[in-house]
Specification:
The chain is of the alpha+beta class. It has helices spanning 5-11, 58-74; strands at 18-21, 25-29, 37-43, 82-84, 100-104. 22% of the residues lie in helices and 22% in strands. The structure holds adenosine monophosphate.
């Protein structure tokens, strides 16, 4: 998607503080962190939101979920972490490329 911010980050056209990547996902630090650790995990293939997932994304979303604890551990979040997926305008989604917020640390905000 040429006008998608996260697609531009994935393509390397916009810089980001990248924490992890492989052939399926990119993980980078949120530019406006809400906690000591605030990462965004995105699929490299554009998917608009959680609401747009279908059966073809089954393996991808399972892969993303299984990767989260591994990333949290690598960030030193052995005591716990929070994950958020904002979906759609009324769900607070601002960037329309599926992403999972991974938050943790001492300054973790409540829900
Ligand atoms: P959401 O409201 O769930 O769509 O979250 C979008 C997130 O993207 C927000 O937490 C923003 O701070 C973050 N964000 C926006 N632009 C950038 C960027 N260029 N690099 C990293 N994070 C960004």
């Amino acid at each position: 998607m040429s006008d998608c911010l996260f697609c531009k980050i994935i393509a390397g056209d916009i810089p980001a503080n990248i924490v992890y990547q492989d052939d399926k996902i990119l993980v980078f630090r949120d530019i406006n962190p809400k906690a000591d650790v605030h990462l965004l995990m995105v699929p490299k293939k554009h998917v608009e939101s959680l609401a747009k997932l279908n059966e073809s994304h089954h393996d991808l979303i399972a892969y993303m979920m299984l990767k989260l604890p591994e990333l949290a551990e690598a960030q030193g979040l052995s005591s716990g972490f929070k994950t958020i997926i904002n979906t759609g305008k009324e769900g607070g989604q601002e960037v329309f490329h599926l992403h999972i917020h991974l938050l943790g640390g001492k300054n973790l905000p409540g829900f």
